[in-house]
Amino acid sequence: MRKLSYSAGIFIFFILISSFPHKAEACYAIVAGKDATKDGSVLVAHSELNHPDNCFLNFRAIPRMKHADSSVIQLQHGGTYPDIEESYSYLWAENFGLAGSDGVMNEHGVVCVSDGTPTKETSMEDLVASGQIEDGGVGFRMRIEVARRAKTARQGVKIVADLVEQFGSRHAIHFVIADAEEAWIMALPKGKQWVAQRVPDDKVVVLPNVNIIQEINPEDTANFMMSDNLIDYAKNKGWYNPEEDGAFNYKRDYGKLRWTGWFEDKYDTDARQWRGQWLISGEKTQLPPEGYLPFAVDPKKKFSVQDFREIMSDHMEGTQFDKTDGYKKGAPHDMMGPREGAICDERNQEVAVFQLRSWMPPEVGCVYWRSTAAVCSSVLTPWYAGINSVPESYHIDVPAEKNVKTDFHFNPPKGTYEYDEEKAFWIYNTLENLVDLEYKKNIKMVKPAWRAFEEEEFRMQEEIENKALELYKKDPELSATFLTNYCNGMALQAQEKAKKMIQKLRNKHYGY
Fold first, then answer.
1. Residue 354 and which of 165, 246, 247, 365 are 20 to 30 A apart at CA?
2. Which residues contact residue 89 at a Cβ distance below 8 angstroms, ignoring those fewer than 6 apart?
3. Is pTM beyond 0.85 here?
4. Is a pLDDT exceeding 50 seen at residue 370?
């Protein structure tokens, strides 16, 4: 390899950092009930697109932990509450420095991810004065406490609800909380109100950064949960008048109408919700739609992990909204973004598809398929709920005494955000940026290679799981070791393959 010149080095560095051009809230989720999937699993696809000025996604396996009777959890802004005697193990995609951007799956297969959603309640000063925010409120810890404490998705909703009712939420947000039996969409405005709606078993929900829960039925506790004062609070704020408005509607009465953007301004709906529902249902809703898009849609077929990964790679290809004209005009990441309906975006830190199956022990039946960076040029590799470690290239070293501490999350060690060519986070972001230099040609090399890699993973899945189950019956710890070695091995294979692609693209574009 020819030595990199100073000028070329500066240029490459510029390419690397330019993948995070500005802050954005553009997360995205697709959630399928177990009767809407090929294998009967609950499927949750989620992309994390919050990019601050500094970022590093720290993917780790957190073990079960015992805690002293006197131990407390410290919140970011001052509040505290008692810890539990023993917390569950979980896989954690930790987004350092951000309060609302982590993803988790615990040993019971309980998943928690989130998307920011705008609501009418905005003034933190007013919320504090009215008692809606106490002791600084709660934000970051909600997902982590679901992972540490919940055996089921419904229990996860209640854990978040208890925290919100005690401290008040600092963020307007939607959570997806799921297990192998069911999934819930939980909406929080800022303050102490909340509402949750169950995803129907035979339908699919598309969740961009907009409020999607609409009319609710408080009597139907199988499908709805809510805070006692949700409706009365909206009445007192003047957001909801039953005589004029009819039935209470969370989207209308709590939510802002939309994010700003040309698509929303022209068509009065969210571009990615519209596009996602089209891809799921096979039906292209007219623009502008008549009223709100539905909470959930009927799927055109039974969906798989692979199907969801393809949807998460979408840039409006083949539609009148494709600004690239089939990539002829440039890379979709350079020309389009979430406001234009692109589901895949250059600011992706992680895209995950959680495959949650109830007929096996969760350690084997629940899989966190995840990719780093934009998924169109990256690869899914599996991480089972029962594994006990991940490769060093996926995380930084964290002192045991600071392992899950709130203050450490917001104050990671010096050098955390520095580029490191041996870390998976930077490897896949480098690959993405090189592909974008000449997307139409480069994606033809990268995409087929990754699809072949993934096809091999899926062909191996049944055999791997049968072996893991055989070991589990004899010795669960041995099964965990087997799955850990397998997951780590596949991740490292993919990482080396990505490095070779990077080298090939560097040779092509820069001659070194």
1. 165
2. 61, 62, 63, 64, 106, 107, 388
3. yes
4. yes
